Every structure is written in C-alpha cells, then in structure tokens.
Amino acid sequence: MVLPVRTREDRMPHDRFVVPAALRRAGMVYAASTVPLCGVLWWSVDGRHEYLDALLLAGLLYAVPILVLALVASVRAAPGDRHVWRLWAGSAAFGTFMSYSLRARAADGWDPATDWSPVSSVVAIVVLIAANSLILRRRSGERAALVDAIDLLMATIAATTPLALVWGRQVVTHPDAWFTVSSGVWLIGSFHGLFVALAIRARTRHDERATATAGVVLGLAGVLAAIAQIHHALSGFPAPGGPALMAQAASLGMIIVFFLFSTRTPATGLERLPAAAQVRRQSVVIVGVLVAVPVIAGVAWARREHDWVTTLAFVALSSLLALSAVRHLLSARETTRLYREVERAAIERGEILSEVMDHMDAGRHRVAAHLHAQAVSLYTAMATISASLDDAGSSGATASATQAAARVRHDLGKQADALRRFSLAVKPLDTCETTSQGLAAPIRAYVENVFAGGRRPALDLHVDPDLTLDWRTEAIVMRIVQEATTNVWRHARATAVRVAIEVERDVLRVEVGDDGVGMARPPAGGRGLSSMESLAGFLGGRLRVTTGPGEGTTVRAELPIDALPRATRPTLSVVR
Length: 576
What we know:
Helix content: 55-70%
Keywords: Kinase, Membrane, Transferase, Transmembrane, Transmembrane helix, Two-component regulatory system
Order of helices and strands: HHHHHHHHHHHHHEHEEHEE
GO biological process, one term: phosphorelay signal transduction system
Largest sheet: 5 strands, mixed
Number of strands: 5
Strand order of the largest sheet: 1-2-3-5-4
CATH class of the largest domain: Mainly Alpha
CATH topology of the largest domain: Rhopdopsin 7-helix transmembrane proteins
Protein name: histidine kinase
Catalytic activity: ATP + protein L-histidine = ADP + protein N-phospho-L-histidine
Structural class: alpha+beta
Mean pLDDT: 80
Number of helices: 15
Distance between the termini: 58 Å
GO molecular function: protein histidine kinase activity
Strand content: 5-15%
Radius of gyration: 39 Å
C-alpha cells in the first residue's frame, strides 16, 4: 500500500490568511494597544535627545513583531509570493538591527549624527521597492514590467518634487541631517508603496481588493508619518513630541495589521483577462504628471530666489519628460506584442473552429452514408420478397413464399432495431429544444470559420427571439445556412452577409443574403443549391434564389410549420 505524499501546504490547517488565527488575534490586540500607549508615554517629550530616544524605543516596539509576522508569512504564503515575504522580512530584520544599534549607541553617549543611517535607510528602501515591484509583477499579466517601473518612478517624482522644493535644502543641511535625510528616504519609499498598492488594487477583482486597500491605507500612513518626522525635526523637536510619535507608531502598527490580514491565496490580477483587455487604454499616471507639472513650476516660481530650487525643478521636469518619452515607446511595443497575442489566439481559435466544423461535416456525411446503406438494404429486402411472391404466385409454391416473407420480416426487424439504436446514438445529449440564442452562436462560429482566411464580411444575424426548434429541424436549418454561406464565400466577394431565421404566417423562413457581385440568373444543377433544395423538400418546403448582376444573391427557404417534426424522442418498433 502506497500512502500519498502530503506537502507542507496539505499539512497546514485551512486558513485564508498568512498568519494563524491565534497570532492574528494577539497581533490585533498588540497593535491596537501600543499606538495609544506610545502617545500616553511620550506625549510631552521635548528636545532632540528625548524625542530621538522615544522614537528609537517605539521603533523597537514594532520592529520585532513585524519581523516575526513576516517570517511566519514567508512560510505560509502562496509559493509564488514567498520570496516577496522574505524580502519584507529582510527589510524588517534590517530595521530591527538598525533601531537597536542606534538605541544602544545613543545610550552610551554616542552621537548619531556620525552614523550611516541615511545609507541604511536607502538599502532598506531598495529592498522594499524590490519586494513591492515583484508583487506588482505577479498581478500584471502580460504587461511589460519596465513600463510599470517607469510609471511608479514618474508618480513618485511628481509627488515628492514639490515637497523637495520646499524642504530640500533644510533637510540636507539640518544639524540632524542623518535623521531628516533618512525620513526623506522613507517618504519616497512610502509614496512608491502607496502607488504600488493603488496599481494592484486597480488590477484585481472587486471582491479581492481587501488586501490591496489595506496596502493603500498603509502607504498613506507611511507618507503622513514621514512628513510628520521631517516637519518635527525642522521645527527643532519642540514639545509636545507625542503627535509625531503617534503618527510613526500608527504607521508601524498599520504594517502589523497589513501583515495580519494578508491572504494566503494571492488576488487574481490581469492574468485573468485576455490579452486584448490588458492593453493600456488610459494612464492615471500621465494625468497625474500633467497635474504635477504646473504645481512644480508654480513652487519653483514662488521660490525662484533660491538657485537650487530652479535647478531641482528643471531636473525633475526634464526627468518626467524623458521618462514619458521612454514610456510611450515601451508602451507602444507592449501594445503591439499584446495585439500579436490577440491575433495568435484568434488564429488558434479559427483553427479549432475549422477542425470542429470539419469534424461535424464529416459526421454528417457518415450519418448520411449509414442511412443510405440502411435504405439500400431495405430496398433490396423488399425487392427480394416482391420477386419471391411473384415466383410463388406463378408456381403455386406458397411455402417458399412464406419462408421468404419470414426471412424478410426478420431482416426488416434487424434493420429497424439498427436504425433505432443509430438514432439514439446520434441524438444530442441535451434533448431540450434549441432557442434563438442556441442557434445564433453556431451560425456566428461557422461564418467566422469560413472567412477566417481572408476579409470577413459584416454579419447581420437575426433569429426570431420566440423561435424554438427541435434538434432535427435545427440540423436542417443549420445545413441550409452553411451551404448558403459557403456559396457566399466562394462566389460573392461580399462585404456584408445577412442571415434571418423567423416565423411568418405559419411558415419558417430561412434567408441568407449578401451584397456581392450577384449572377445573371440562378445556377442550375449546382451541388450546394441541390443540397439545399433537398433539405427544404425533406420538410415539405421550397427554396428560392434571387440574384442579379451587382445586386447580390438571396437564398430563401420556406418551411411549413405543420411539417416540422416535434421534439420528441423517436420510437421505432418492429411489427411481426
């Protein structure tokens, strides 16, 4: 006996979140209680040393839980997202180490002004940006990752440049530049994360946007916290420092909440859509950049007495212009590639339709051949018994005639049973009557298949919405439409085809017309026309062809409704 191998995912309890329920409850209590606790403990802090000491303690208060949650999630998350969680865990571990190091050295009297915190912040932000970009890539379907990266960069530049024009020199030249520059770097990273969350939210289904919405809230909290830190530092760390500390605590607490309620099953992104639906038809980023340009120009004009403002504004606007040009070129290439995918899919669909239609046509020929063989056999049997009766009547051999009749009855019984079984075999699995919608779909598919190799004419299809046909009548109507459509493809050179199937005065009318070259008179003896006439005659109807040079051709079949067979199961019996 071979036991099935259980994977790690199979051994995990069923839970839609990356964090177990017990840890999730504890995490919510922790986040909800520590944010107000930070405000109560450090509301009145005053001065640089007190504020930085409280800020580092707050960082340690959240860094360790964030690291633990990220490590747990990196094990429980979907396999494709685990590397993202590992990057987030690495960034959290780096932040924990940095906060502990700063706190320990500051307690020993070490001046953090000489520290490498800005460099550390840059490294941590680069790791976060890489993780965010990877998770966006997994929700982007067939779109180019480079176009998304440029969009995010442009949006970040447009959002941060006005703030840099106002605070830039003060941030860089501040006595605690290690702190202000680090906060500025986190501001840039928060803006980038906010735009990533917005992009993911726009690309996922409406019922799967909870995690992305939490990411948006997290990004906003990070932006506000970074702005609060910069403003508090530039103001000289005045009392009370509680509001800025609570903003930072709320931002870190929101990271815990985001981790707690992230789902194990990743949200479905653009990969759920066909290639044509993934084409970028509009760009919110470009609109945002167009709005940001006059804002940047206005701020630069208001602060034009500072040379560095003009230079920074020029660099930002030039960068946006260059990135926009590159984005346009890459987006055009992406659109071309996506439409090639659409064309390839259309070719494959046409080939599949062609195979299906060929198979259906071959099936009809096999059915016709089988019925023809059965009819010939029955005719032969009847001819045999007729000849036997004639011979018996002339010679008086009634016993021979009786035996011949018995053999023929037996043969007729076998043939009738075979026809019954064959009828049941070829009958559709769905015995319901075909509605107008069920008839329109195969007609559209057939027209698409017939004209797949060339210019496809416009199809005007009308099927009586109240029309209901049984499967045998549907087969005859479909065959008439197919034969007429094939004639249009072969001879008409039409730009439009109209198909109408409707009931008028107890008559089912099947009409196929085109606007092609037409003919001087209807052809005589054509195989397609003869086949349509035979099909219409099977139901007691008639076929008419109207045509003229340059006027197109119209094929109209009229089938009496009282001649239509009912959609009941055929029952064959043998009379002995």
